[in-house]
Design brief:
With 172 residues, the protein is an alpha+beta fold. The protein has a single domain, classed as Gcn5-related N-acetyltransferase (GNAT) (Aminopeptidase, 3-Layer(aba) Sandwich). The protein is built from five helices and seven strands; from the N terminus they run βαααβββαβαββ. Strands 1-2-3-4-5-7-6 form a seven-stranded mixed β-sheet, with helices on both faces. A hairpin with a 2-residue loop joins strand 2 and strand 3. Helix 1 packs across helix 3. The chain is globular, with a radius of gyration of 15 Å. The N and C termini lie far apart (32 Å). 27% of the residues are buried.
């Protein structure tokens, strides 16, 4: 099994947009109304928004390939790019998105380990993420990887308020 990881540049914006829309839709469409899904996808993954995020020096994106096919991506944030104020000693994993047909191949763990590597290189003391309280498989995965729930925050899917669990893993 050949896994390749590529750091993204602005030239990857359309690819990231497509992966983001596809994976988010696959994962959450059955639990949300079509109107709220459409509103969220248009807001979060419009090309201008993706390019803005890619241009932020405090964010990094990586596309993962499995057997030379695009399988998903990782987005990490530090500093003011974090979606919650967690301080300079933290790195946020904002997205680990794996296309459905590439799940259960160890790519989530691979991308999580890449995030940990980045955090350690930058002398971060902890990594954290937000995960929807109803995404039981993701919550179980993060717990297996050593994350602990510490708080919650609101996440808006269109006009619907949802709750994300804030999960933290201490590194140092």
């Amino acid at each position: 099994m050949t896994i390749i990881l590529k750091k993204c540049t602005l030239e990857d914006s359309r690819n990231l947009q497509e992966i983001g829309c596809e994976t988010f839709n696959e994962t959450f469409r059955d639990q949300n109304s079509p109107e709220n899904m459409k509103a969220y996808l248009e807001k979060a993954f419009n090309l201008k928004q993706v390019e803005k995020e890619l241009s932020n020096d405090s964010s990094q994106f990586f596309i993962v390939y499995l057997e030379n096919e695009v399988a998903g991506y990782l987005k990490v944030n530090t500093g003011d790019a974090q979606s919650e104020e967690m301080g300079d000693e933290s790195l946020e994993i904002e997205r680990i998105y794996i296309k459905r047909n590439f799940q259960k191949h160890g790519l989530g763990k691979y991308l999580l380990n890449k995030a940990i590597e980045i955090a350690l290189e930058q002398n971060k003391h902890k990594i954290w993420l937000g995960v929807w309280e109803q995404n039981e498989s993701a919550i179980a995965f993060y717990k297996r990887m050593g994350f602990v729930q510490t708080a919650t925050h609101s996440f808006y899917m269109g006009d619907e308020r949802q709750i994300d669990l804030i999960m933290i893993k201490t590194l140092i």
